[in-house]
Structure formats: structure tokens, C-alpha cells
Amino acid sequence: MLKFSKFSVTINNDNRNYLINTLSQAVIELDTKHYEIVKRSIESNDLSFFTNDEIVLLSSNQFIVDESFSELSFLKLKYNENIYSSSELETLILEPTLSCNFACKYCFEKSHRMDICERSDYFEALANHVRNSFSVGRRIHFNLFGGEPLLKWNEFKKFFTEICKYENYYSSITTNGYLFTNESIDELIELGKCKYIQITLDGPKSIHDSIRYEKQAEGSYDKLVNVIKQLSKIKNSNAELTIIVRINLLNISIDDFSKILDSFSEEEINNLELLIRPVFNTDSFHDNNLKCINELSKYYEIALKRGAKISKNTSLYQHCEGDGYYQNIHILPDLSIRKCVIDLGYNPTIFGKMDINGEFELDYKNIVEWYKNSPFDDEKCKNCICLPLCCGGCPLYYRKKEKRQCLPKNMLLESLIY
Question: CB count, 10 Å around CB of 124?
């Protein structure tokens, strides 16, 4: 016998009707007639409204499932696999420096830069760890982060030159982009096997330059736009490269957003993925931001009409990398290992340290406490249709507050549409 999935739901968004399954993340757009039929069928759990072909379509996308299948148990299994299964892919978020050439007012790291010292043997220890991982058949994703990672480009270049004989790695970078040169871009792609490059814009030129500026110079907007244009040209001949432009919404209007897109040609926009996010308050930044996360659909619609792609969270069965196994970790300048760096003053995020031989010395007390946030111990979470999308919410928030930070349901559901 078949039944409607507990994670199937109908929504109306901008006068368009959708059937969504949050577990499979399948989406079907419906006309008004079928929208009413599906709504009625879900409410009554009566499948007699559908033809055999429609039943096959709904089953193949997990909108309907066998009544003996426990979706919650399946989701719990997948959630736990992310934590406890030793994956062949190791993600190392590399932060050899917290220093930055920019002075962005909302930076969550700036108040802790003097607290964490830079180790001169950082890349030596990293190289030793990498050799150990490659020797047991692991693949590695190097995520270059910071601070500003390009401040350490010479060290990264030397590191990638030493390990480029290995095939089992690729890299990504989150950078302000200001220090990029044509040469360093080519080296990053060739030596670092870089597949993802993320650069942030904080609004059109007048707004961006008042927020995101180089410490010893004026605004950075024009230079960053030129860097993104150069990356777009490279994308034309490198299909594996993904260019992500993060657009921060700190009181940014729809008109402001459109002006950012006006800086690029249609072809350039087609080569970009836009990651659109409001700026949140942190322990070091507090501002009255009128833009909230449940308003994103308005910006998504403009971006899609202009030909851009929307960058989505590709992590299944976890809220963020903070939920995953310790092989997905940040390595800070002092070789400490952290699961999250949003609040560097909060020591329970420290999972241990890496020694000069590249071995992890783990703090199991902090690790055990961190993973006490399972949403499957929470009745509200278990009965929430958005559980497969948020997986209990921010693990750092739960660790600090011992309660959950629920995101707006409409925002989570609409994220699947775009």
C-alpha cells in the first residue's frame, strides 16, 4: 500500500503552485486544477484521485511511499552517516592566517585576530597530514579560507607545487578577490585544481565601497568587478570552474541589487552563481539590518530573470559542515582544529589540534558535547516538514543556547523552487 510522504507539501509562491518533497527535494509545478487535487489528496491521504501514470511519477520522486517505509528512520540513518561514517573525501578548511587586507565592519574574525598566533610550520604540518591521508586512499578537498587566503598565496603555491603529483585532490577558495592577478588565478586553477571561487559584493559601487574596502586604499568595487569578469572569461573554456558571487544584503534594496547585475554583461551573468544572503549579527557586529532571510525570493526572481544561477546548499542530511564528521574541519593558524569559526572566542568548537607530523590530537570531550544536538531527540523537529532541509538548525547556536534556532518554513521551502 502507498501513502503520501510525511514530507510532501503544497505551497503557493508568487501565484504559482508547487508540490514539494523536502526529503527527496523534488519539486513539481502544478496548474490550479491539479494543485487542488493534490492538496485534497494529501489532507485525506487518498490516492484514488490519480491515474496510474501519475502514481508512477509521484512514487519515483518520493511524493508517495510504501506505508511500511519509515522516512524518519531513513533520514536519521543518513544524518548519522554524515557524522559517524569515515568518508574517503576529507575536507580541510585551511586558515593559515586570520589577517586581512580589508576592513569590513561585519567581519566575525577581526576581534580574535590577536588571540590566535600563526605557526611558521603550518604548511609543513599540513603537507605531512596530506601525505598520510593520500597513503590510505583518501581524496582531499582543500577549502582556502581566512582571513584573506591570498595573503598566503606564495605559501599555498609552494604547497600545491609539492603535492601536485597526486591526483586525489581539488580546491576551492573564499576570497575578497582584491589580490588576485591573472598569474595567481591560473596557478590556483592549474596547481590547486580549483573548482570553486567565491568573491563577495556588498551592493552597488557606492554602497560596496563604504563597507568593503582595502585598508590602505579606497573602495574595491571596480577592481572586484574586473576580477569577476576575468573569471567569467576563464569559465568559457573551463566548464568545471564554478564562480560564486556572494551578495550580502545589508539594507540592500531590489534596485541596489539590480545595479550590481548591471555591472556585468548578459554572458558574464550567465557564468555566475549568486549566493544571496542577509548579514547577521555576531559577537563582534551588531546592526539594524532591515533585510531578513525570508525575503530572499524577491532577489532570486530578479537574478533568474537576468540569467544568473542561484547557488544552493548542496549538503544533504546536514545543516552545514558543522554537522559533519571531524574530517570536515577548519585548521586555524595555530594548528587548532575547529568545527565552526563563527565565534572564535568560543572554545567548545575546538576539536583538538594537528601536530607537526600531521596527526590529529582530538579533544573527545568537546566532540561528544558538540554532537549532542541530534534533532531526532526533539519531538518538534521530528514532526516538522522542514527537518530534511534544516536538520535541527545551527549546531553552534544549539551548543551555546541549548535550544534550536528555527528558520522560516516558507524560506526553506522556497529555496527548493529556485
Answer: 14
Sheet holding 8-13, edge to edge: 8-13, 16-21, 26-30
SS (H, E, C) 195-223: EEEEEEECCCHHHHHHHCEECCCCECHHH
Quick check: 141 and 133 in contact, CB under 8 A? no
CA distance 275 to 312: 7
Grid coordinates given for 92: 580541510
Place of cell 551592493: 203
Q: CB atoms < 10 A from the CB of 140, how many?
A: 20
Q: Flag whether the pTM goes above 0.70.
A: yes
Three-state secondary-structure class, residue 229: helix
Report the relative pairing of strands 336-338 and 350-354 from DSSP bridges: antiparallel
**pLDDT tens digits along 48-104:** 999 999 999 999 999 999 999 999 999 999 999 888 877 778 899 999 999 998 877
Comparing CA positions, the residue from 318, 185, 320 lying closest to residue 241 is 185
- The 10s digit of each residue's pLDDT in 100-117 is 988 777 666 565 666 789
